[in-house]
Amino acid sequence: MLEKYGLKANDAILAEEKHMGLYEDLIQNHNAKLIAGGAAQNTARGAQYILPPNSVLYIGCVGKDKYADILQEACNKAGLRTEYRIDESQPTGRCGVIITGHERSLCTHLAASNEYKLDHLKQPHIWSLVEKAKVYYVGGYHLTVCVPAILALAEEAAEKNKTFMLSLSAPFIPQFFKDQLDSVIPYTDYVLGNEAEALSYSESHGWGITDIQEIAKKMATLPKKNTKRPRIVIITQGTEPTISAIASADGLDEVRLTSVHAISKDEINDTNGAGDAFAGGFCAGVVEGKTVAESIDMGHWLAGLSIRELGPS
């Protein structure tokens, strides 16, 4: 399958024309399972799993089709409130996942998820919910969609001293959406990523740094709009310890390594969505006022649950 569609074993890419047959191929010929996904939506479901009922709202864009119904049903089951923009001209976004051993290859067709608009966010009944929120989390994939919507949330957070979190999402984001990413980074109180995304960030910014701890430290000290809060950069490294770098307006305060709970290989079912689950657990910790170390531990715990299941369950 990887060779047929020109995919790599452990990668995340956006679908091109040559990949369009992948989705039906998986369903028709490989008994693929349909599981609700959506990166930031996975994170939202994960956070809601831990937090009290009605704690989390997810905003995005879907088509008017069976895939949107699957998403809505999964969110309802998780107790996650959604406010979708419905775009009838595009199908709901899909991500084809090919698992080889413990590796996963992701091929995403954004479709309707690429059609989110600022005017949807600014509707009074939705913006009033934004104003009530204390923590904002944006997936890096949205940098390919609607940067003005991200900046609207970011500015709201900075002006009112609320928490703004951004996930780097995939190595191609710093590579190909550098300007969009750079416009949002100054607003970030938390930046989450993995080692591949951190390396991509360093490379795209010409830092010449390959040591992940050093990259995290440098990211933490980048210019920041809201200096009342520190910037905290969290970089996961698979089974290796998670790096956290914390910097206030005065400079770097702390770098810490937090060990990952060991899971035996025979317990691992699917690593797809593990990063989203980590972010969900971490976000829940932040919302609950936990320390950075405690929040990382919650992220590790939820990611550990996720990889024992199929997909971002």
Q: What do these coordinates show?
A:
The chain is of the alpha/beta class and 313 residues long. The chain has a domain at 134-260: 3-Layer(aba) Sandwich (UDP-N-acetylmuramoyl-L-alanine:D-glutamate ligase). The protein has twelve helices and eleven strands. The chain has helices at residues 22-29, 40-50, 66-78, 118-121, 124-132, 147-159, 172-176, 178-184, 195-204, 212-220, 274-287, 292-307, and strands spanning 11-14, 57-62, 81-86, 94-100, 103-109, 135-139, 163-167, 190-194, 231-237, 240-248, 251-258. The protein has a six-stranded mixed β-sheet with strand order 6-7-8-9-10-11, sandwiched between helices. Helix 2 (40-50) crosses helix 11 (274-287) and helix 11 (274-287) packs antiparallel against helix 12. It is globular, with a radius of gyration of 18 Å.
Features:
globular, six-stranded mixed sheet, 12 helices, 313 residues, three-stranded mixed sheet
- What coarse outline follows from CA principal-axis ratios? globular
Radius of gyration: 18 Å
**Assigned CATH superfamily of the domain at 134-260:** Ribokinase
Low-confidence region ranges = none
Mean pLDDT: 94
How would you write the strand order of the largest sheet? 6-7-8-9-10-11
Per CATH, the architecture of the domain at 134-260 is 3-Layer(aba) Sandwich
Could you tell me the number of beta strands?
Answer: 11
Quickly give the structural class.
alpha/beta
Number of alpha- plus pi-helical segments: 12
The CATH topology annotation of the domain at 134-260 reads as UDP-N-acetylmuramoyl-L-alanine:D-glutamate ligase
What's the CATH C level of the domain at 134-260? Alpha Beta
